[in-house]
Amino acid sequence: MNPNTMIICFSEGETPARAIAESLSIDYATIATKKFPDGESLVRLPLPLKKNLIIYRSLDRPNDKIIELIMACDAARAKGVEHICLVTPYLAYMRQDIENQPGEAISQTIIGKLLSNYIDEIITVDPHLHRVTSLNQNYHLHTAIALSATQQIGEYIAEHYKGAIILGPDAESEQWVSAAAEIAETDFVVANKVRHGDREVHITLPQRDYKGKDIVLVDDIISTGGTFISIAKLLKQQGAEIKACIVTHCLCSELDEQKVLEAGIPSIISTDSVPHHSNRIALTELLADSIRQIH
Ligand code: R5P
Known about the structure:
alpha/beta; six-stranded parallel β-sheet; 15 strands; globular
């Protein structure tokens, strides 16, 4: 590791960022923030900073977080920082990669362009890449790394749900379910999903005998839970036994989580990319190894 490197994070990321710092044996500090009564943010960096700075921040609930992040990056440059690596386990605004309705902003491109102005490198995990297949298409940086948590998810399935079939909700999920199934040495199926609204999806299951079969649902993101709830209804009708749903990024509210449980999915399991009580799979070593390789 470059000895002139340190990692800083915002308060919500203290636990995972500190674990990465310990793994890399580098200094760690927290960025202070304050919200003004009108909703504006104040950002104060922990000084002094090292020249090679890693900033850790996941971008769930992204609007305020992105503003604070770019303020932190700009202020760091003003204090002599020469190199900024953004470690953002959950990278927001990746799902809109086309203009679905005329006039819609393509947020993936816009946020990519914005953040690229402030950072030199980005490391993220399971970004929602579908029609756009590479992070570099929107993040114009020398180094833009998209890691995957499928190894960790596959190992978790092998340990806790051995032999269960892994089911992904749509074509985009095939990249994650096929990789996790290979690690867990099990079978996988991919359903078909048509989205009609934020909470309305129509799912078609591929034909096979689901009766009495253990199923683990896997996807990159759970948000409202609507996708998994629709799948659960169909699987229950066919006599399958759903063991859990496992995601890289859990963005689910308490209310939506309750609906997922009521739909017959006994538990939500997630990586620690976004702080949530469903976090069971740490990404510390995945992220630390990636940082080690480039610094
Ligand atoms: C989008 O295509 C993602 O891969 C997820 O399937 C989606 O974000 C899940 O959303 P929800 O939980 O709201 O159905």
